[in-house]
Amino acid sequence: MSQEIRNLEPKALWNKFADLNAVPRPSKKEDRVIEFMKNFGNSLGLETFEDEIRNVIIRKPATAGMENRKTVVLQGHLDMVHQKNSDTVFDFDTQGIDMYVDGDWVRARGTTLGADNGLGVAMIMAILESTAIQHPAIEALFTIDEETGMTGAMNLKGGILKGEILLNMDTEEDDEIDIGCAGGIDVTATREYHEEETPEHSVGYTITVKGLNGGHSGMDIHKGLGNANKIMNRLLFDAFENFGLQVAEINGGSLRNAIPRESVAKVIVAGMYDEAYIFDMQEIINDIKTEFKTTEPNLIIEIVKCDLPKSVMDLGVQEGIIRSIYAAHNGVYRMSAEMKDLVETSNNIARVIIKDGEIKIGCLTRSSVETSKFDLANALRSSFELSGCYVELSGSYPGWTPNVNSEILTVLESVYEKQNGTKANVVACHAGLECGILGTNYPEMDMISFGPTIQGAHSPDERASIKSSQKFWKFVLEILENIPLK
Predict the structure, then answer these.
(1) Low-confidence ranges of the chain (pLDDT < 70)
(2) Which of 397, 419, 449 is the last residue of a domain?
(3) What span is annotated as the signal peptide, if there is one (predicted)?
(4) Residue after which a domain boundary falls, among 352, 372, 397
(5) Residue 240's domain spans which residues?
(6) Residues pairing with 301 in the sheet
(7) Are residues 238 and 368 in the same domain?
(8) Largest Cα–Cα separation, the chain
(9) pLDDT digits (tens, 9 = 90+) for 197-212
């Protein structure tokens, strides 16, 4: 990793981010980063412990003169989304993130950067380590598994935290103060199918959809970005209708909270349709590229001949599943009637795996309205059940209801306007923040969420603004100086 990252200002923030990014920390594999954080807290002589689910809590007393202020919980999550470009050789389980500076941006070479939520965690670490920053009593809460299930937040028991105010540092626009967020639920469709022997006189093809932007399935869902699973299914649908295409296997998308960037399918068509199939597909590919020319200028769709697979899907099951995926909603379902430009409800068809007689389709449905969340989840369930799938709704977590009369919101608005000469945008977001979940066991805690500017989260294009990190640093320090009295 380049030394230039550690030389960025504020050095306290970027050095802690560099330390953190040297530790592999995929969701559900946080053992190393948990030990790293515990060692960090213990090295400072601060009270440091794990709760039952393995969240890490570090407590630091108030600095002199700040003892009469309310205790503040500084909160971030330890895990990060692991995504890489298909041509990037990288082992997330063993390697630290390879970062570099690109103008005003810090990026990673071919992988996600981990600024979500690493910069928030690094900020908290820098405050805990500092002997110069003025602050009230602090409880640092580092949760686990935020990205793949909110496990840490959902299992944090009431009574562990003593703080009255929570500052969540996990949003991605530095001019925004978040006071609400969407909840979510996983919709997973599965079924088995009979494999048939590949017919004679067939031709095998590999279809590849790649080069899409991808991104955060909450924050970027309204941008009209391409979903590799939906694009692939469109190609399969047309070829099945016109040429009797049969599917051998599909591997599309990756993580539930990332808009799918790539999909690969192995298929066959009858040899008699070989030339006609390729001609027809090229027309459809041109149409799709034209539709996405503005939002997805780097979209690549390739169809190349390959070795003939030994078996293919049962045609009846194949037809049903292709039609189900076509019918399943992807993208924005409903905009909020209460908050301008806020997505209320959406779905991301995140994962499609068809191989060896098994089908698995994974979706993440989000909404700031619980009834709307389940309405869309049930619509998806119905679509997949019509093709014989078993559908499980799991991992439901609540949204975070805005409190426009929040005391800490008043503090943040005042500090922001003083520092920047303009008002902050007070918003609710369509991402899943941990505040709503934490609020179930800490209903009286006054919560707010904010952070530095990060773009392309959950994709290898993730990047963090250096200038914004300086703004973030200055903002946090003055907030801590102005925490209300007990």
Answers:
(1) 1-2
(2) 397
(3) none
(4) 397
(5) 185-397
(6) 209
(7) yes
(8) 84
(9) 999 999 999 999 999 9
- Amino acid letter, 228: A
pLDDT digits (tens, 9 = 90+) for 302-324: 999 999 999 999 999 999 999 99
Identify the sign of the CA torsion 362, 368, 370, 374. negative
pLDDT of residue 101: 96
Decide the pairing of beta strands 165-168 and 446-449.
parallel
What is the CATH number for 199?
3.30.70.360
Q: What is the pLDDT of residues 405-440, one digit of tens each?
A: 999 999 999 999 999 999 999 998 898 889 989 999
- pTM, two decimal places: 0.77
Residue 173 a catalytic site member: no
Active-site residue flag, 116: no
Residues of 255-290 as b/e, b for ≥16 C-beta within 10 angstroms? bbbbbbbbbbbbbbbbeebeeebeeebeebbeebee
CA distances from 374 to 86, 183, 422 (A): 35, 11, 39
Both tokens of residue 325? 């995926």
Same structural domain for residues 356 and 367?
yes
- HSE, side-chain direction, 13 A CA sphere, residue 326: 14
Residue type, 79: D
Choosing from 79, 116, 147, 174, the catalytic residue is 79
Catalytic residue chosen out of the listed positions 139, 146, 147, 296:
146
CA–CA distance, 141 with 11 (Å, rounded to integer): 22
Strands 56-60 and 47-50: antiparallel
Spatial neighbors of 92 by CB under 8 A, at least 6 apart, are: 24, 26, 82, 84, 111
